Amino acid sequence: MGYAYTNGTILDGTWAMEPLEGMALLQEGEKIVDIVPADRVPQGFAPIDLDGAYLLPGLVNLHVHLAMDGRPPKASKKPVDYTRLYHALTSNALLRAAARRRVAGFARTELMSGVTTIRTVGGVLDFDARVRDEIDAGRLVGPRIIASNMGVSVPGGHFAGSIATEAASPQMAVEHVDKIAQTKPNLIKLMVTGGVMDASEEGEPGVLRMPPEVVRAACDEAHRLGFKVAAHVESSEGVRVALEGGVDTIEHGASLDARAIALFKRRGAADVCTISPALPYAEFDLGESHAQPVAKRNGRIVMDSIVACAKTCLAQGIPVGLGNDVSCPFVTHYNFWRELCYFHRYVGASNAQTLHLATLGNAAIAGVSDVTGSLEPGKSADLLVVGSNPLEDLSALRDVRMVALRGRLQRHPRVRRFADIDALLDRYM
């Protein structure tokens, strides 16, 4: 049986994003088949009454880590030792199975919060791809997953020894890419610079860690195997090295000069803006973030650079996508909608432009715009229903009434929320 979504307003995800009223979206199986006047729904389509709500494409989150839940460390505890935690999670078969179930649970939360496609950019072993395959086979409930599995870093680099391997030379980088490729990822992730959480000095968060020759070797091998490359970058020097080495997306970003802009355009590369992980470091009081003073100052540097990069890319016609670097402190799996609000507030994009980037724009960067990202005949029925108009207020996206992936409808989805985190973040809406 087909279904007809009626009695609501349709926002199709395209650039124009003109609200469609008095129309019905028709779904058969996993696909959207048409959008027709509500009084011309063919026989054989069971009505789904939206009761005045808004129907739009499911959101696409381009920067996700599935292994953690975003809960920050308590004030009384030492900073998280991610290498030690990684080894604890993978030390035996029983713990690996438990960790994989945890990853699957977080993936489900993404879907229930309105995100129908995620792109993971650094995870534990091959868990992301395995959960992806279980979802695709219908054995688990979760979003479409575009997985990188483990990333590639360098000794002493960002997340080296936990969610990223350590490549000490170009040849090792090639070997690591080949080994990751055997775990059946969809893309390759490189850790080109440092970050806020592993910086020891003020002004150091984006220091270049991966030598240019290692970046080039990893990119060449990934491209030879048919994979796109995403790169963690938080400095202007890192942007230049990453783009000259051949990466396809700059994750996070930094201030751009004319040379970097030209490299973006020559490579056809995209910027993935991630304000969510930097904001708590930059904006929270130290008693709230439990961060060291140096991390707060570095958080401000990174946040300002991420915003500046996105603004420049938009002005230059360089593709910009949105991700929230979920699992960083204070960044939960149900709060991607906040990244859209931050993008509107700090970058200055309109609500319509932001919503387009988080749906069809993100799908294009992820390479799946022929499948999802907009409500068009022939595309997957990846749907999100919210109670009020996100074109007027993007925080409407937190009120998820229904969500569907490949036409499988979840009514009244629920997620476990963290009231303490939400109370702190609501100040920035």
TrEMBL record:
It comes from Parafannyhessea umbonata. GO terms for molecular function: hydrolase activity, acting on carbon-nitrogen (but not peptide) bonds. This is Imidazolonepropionase. PANTHER family: ALPHA-D-RIBOSE 1-METHYLPHOSPHONATE 5-TRIPHOSPHATE DIPHOSPHATASE. Residues 54-407 form the Amidohydrolase-related domain. It comes from the Bacteria. The lineage of its organism: Bacteria, Bacillati, Actinomycetota, Coriobacteriia, Coriobacteriales.
